[in-house]
Design a protein that fits this description.
There is one protein chain. This protein has eight helices and eleven strands. With 249 residues, the protein is of the alpha/beta class. It has one domain: Metallo-dependent phosphatases (Purple Acid Phosphatase, chain A, domain 2, 4-Layer Sandwich). The strands form two sheets. Strands 4-3-2-1-10-11 form a six-stranded mixed β-sheet, covered by helices on one side. The protein starts with a strand and ends in a 5-residue tail after the last strand.
Length: 249
């Protein structure tokens, strides 16, 4: 089985050319050896609509299309930053837009893929905000506004988010163990991969009750690309979380 690769939380921004450069290198090199590449949300720092002129998005679309032509299937999942990404952009990338939880099947197991923000149920203010912006009526109204107005609203929302994050208890911003347990029990799976929290690690989750005879599950958390790159690799036998340096020139 060719490996499957997963990345998330790149937060691509014109001001961070090092992250963009590292992604292009990753797509042209490491990713070409994989069967499928899953991008589990927050590929971009902000997304105000598929119709917004965006040279950075144009570059990413070209690179993802080229990766697809090399034989690697590309899958995009919404994050909390780029939840307005639509089918138009996915089509430009030659990618498939997927909902969460998305179930990956390997010869050995099934693995649930999520962005991860819905697991942070203790952050009540964020969950209220998420309910608002994921409402189709809110999204339709937002996307009908002029681009300049959309950018200003997005700027204000990011500023509010940064203020809330700096004031919040770090424990509240992490996943809720109870919600992780609920999701695993609902899906009847023993492996979960997500991003969002920017806390890369591999966790063992005690299952109560056991699932298919298993008393433990594995929760793999992808890292963000702020100071280094991260990817997870799924092979026929295991899941590996891998850090690597950003390209600086």
């Amino acid at each position: 089985m060719s490996p499957l690769l997963l990345i998330s939380d790149l937060h691509l921004d014109p001001n961070r050319e090092d992250i963009t450069r590292t992604l292009v290198d990753f797509l042209q090199d490491r990713a070409t050896a994989s069967k499928r590449l899953f991008i589990l949300g927050d590929l971009f720092e902000v997304w105000v609509g598929d119709d917004a002129p965006n040279p950075l998005a144009d570059l990413v679309a070209r690179e993802l299309t080229a990766l697809g032509h090399s034989g690697t299937e590309v899958y995009l999942m919404h994050g909390n930053r780029d939840f307005l990404m639509g089918e138009t952009f996915a089509d430009r990338c030659g990618a498939t837009l997927i909902d969460e939880p998305y179930i990956v099947k390997t010869p050995q197991q099934q693995i649930a893929l999520m962005h991860g923000d819905t697991l942070c149920t203790l952050d009540l203010e964020y969950m209220k905000f998420r309910d608002m912006v994921r409402n189709p009526k809110w999204q339709q109204e937002f996307l009908s506004r002029p681009l300049e107005e959309r950018h200003e609203i997005a700027r204000q929302l990011r500023q509010q988010s940064q203020q809330a994050t700096s004031a919040a208890d770090t424990a509240i911003m992490d996943v809720s163990p109870a919600e992780v347990q609920r999701v695993l029990q609902q899906l009847q799976l023993t492996s979960l991969i997500h991003g969002h929290t920017h806390r890369p690690a591999v966790h063992t989750v005690a299952l109560k009750p056991a699932i298919s005879g298993a008393s433990e599950a594995t929760r793999t958390v992808l890292g963000d690309w702020h100071s280094q790159g991260w990817y997870a690799e799924i092979t026929e036998t295991n899941i590996r979380l891998v850090p690597f340096p950003l390209l600086t020139n």
